[in-house]
Amino acid sequence: MDLVTIFVTGLLTGGLTCIAVQGGLLAASIAQHSIETHKRVEKQGHALPLLVFVLAKLIAYTLLGFLLGWLGSVMKLSLTASVILQFLVVFFMLGTALHLLNVHPIFRYFVIQPPRFLTKFLRRESRSASVFAPAVLGASTVFIPCGTTQAMMALAVATGNPFLGATVLFVFTLGTSPVFFILGYLATRLGLFFQKAFRRIAAAALILLALYNLNGAIALTGSPWTLSSVAQQFICIFAYCGSEGFSQPVNEATITITNDGYTPNKLAVKAGSVVTLHLQNKGGNGCTQALTIPQLNIQKIVPLGASDTLTFTAPDKPGSKLAFMCSMGMYPGVIDII
Predict the structure, then answer these.
(1) Cα 319 to chain center, whole Å?
(2) C-alpha to C-alpha distances, 258 to 5, 140, 230, 268, 291, nearest whole angstrom
(3) Around Cβ 150, how many Cβ atoms within 10 Å?
(4) Cβ–Cβ < 8 Å for 17, 205
């Protein structure tokens, strides 16, 4: 995912899911701050503890992203492990959404609980009127990550770079901050009714994002039956989608990588032939850096501004297709075997 997408994900989904998980601590801290400081708070409002909480959270998650990026640099997940991880993230996000909707008590196990000693410490700090208390609570939220944050943490590991990992979590947390601040402020004003309402909104957003990630996870298995392809075929039942003939087969081609995907994203090769792809990354700084061919268990990472070559032997069966995509299962392309 590119940095703009990460920011928008934080803005539209991350803020809702995170405040559903972490908002109780913040609300308790603000409430106590109001009780202890009386009229001074009535003049200043509740903004100061919110700002301290959000700033401390931003710093803590940036440091966490640096650590996760470093962890990713010393360990390389296989393509199979990456697919399993993405399915687990989808499973966790759906479980978290069902917990927010109170569908069944079993889904309470999807709520990450901090260690008991940390819980006691947070409760003690939430009763403090000191400005330091929201800062401690904000930094401590790294131990209570929400569903969408789990996916961003996995993405930070996948970058394999400490500075890029820090950037991923910084941009995501920055995206959550406006929504988190506004909803946190309103939650302290409107009380329980508002909290129940945004729990339902957060659950709906989580389910949509989980389905989006599920589509990518299915694509990474090499299956042609993804959610988007099934939807496209359903649409074509009622509307003419046209048909494309095979392009001329090639043994060698150049693919340009950008943030918008791969150009060209459709090739034809002869069955059983040796194919050479020259990969040039002229603008891809997200998952497009990792061109992936799931059926051949191939993943070639080409950093921004770099070039590389990928060589493989095409399948022997004419009429089949090789799907290629980024490491998140997005930005699809296809190689026709003729």
Answers:
(1) 35
(2) 14, 37, 26, 21, 11
(3) 17
(4) yes
Query: Of the ranges 21-30, 47-56, 68-77, 174-183, which one carries the lowest mean pLDDT score?
Result: 21-30
Amino acid making up residue 24: G
d(CA 6, CA 9): 5
- In this structure, which amino acid lies at residue 77? L
Q: Tokens 């850096």 — which residue?
A: 289
Worst-scoring range by mean pLDDT, 132-146, 220-234, 318-332?
132-146
Report d(CA 197, CA 126) in Å as an integer.
24
pLDDT of residue 40: 44
| Residue 1 tokens, joined | 């995912």
pLDDT in tens, 254-263: 999 998 889 9
Give me the amino acid identity at 332: P
Sheet holding 274-281, edge to edge: 261-263, 252-258, 274-281, 307-313
Domain boundaries, the chain: 3-220, 247-337
Which residue shows structure tokens 């109001």? 34
Q: Would you state the CATH architecture of domain 247-337?
A: Sandwich (2.60)
d(C-alpha 152, C-alpha 148), whole Å: 7
The single-letter code of the amino acid at 82 is: S
Q: Rounded mean pLDDT of the chain? A: 77
pLDDT tier for residue 36 given thresholds of 50, 70 and 90 = very low
Beta strand ranges found along 259-306 (DSSP E): 261-263, 266-269, 274-281, 290-293, 298-301
Per-residue tokens: 280? 């040039």
Select from 266, 280, 285 the least CA-distant residue to 325.
Answer: 266
Q: Is the pLDDT of residue 76 over 90?
A: no
